[in-house]
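User: Study the shape:
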Amino acid sequence: MTRHAPAASCRTGKARYRDEVAAKLALARIDTGHGNRRERRAYRCPHCRGWHLTSRP
């Protein structure tokens, strides 16, 4: 597994990244040309203590 690949999923159903760096690397690689949804930032999850991506500002 590469450092920026999701580590597992959280009970929220979202992909879990092991740290902020991994989440931000994944965010930087997202293709912005498809779909209406656009992930905008990474945040620390209070449930799994991992990092997730969200489309919320």
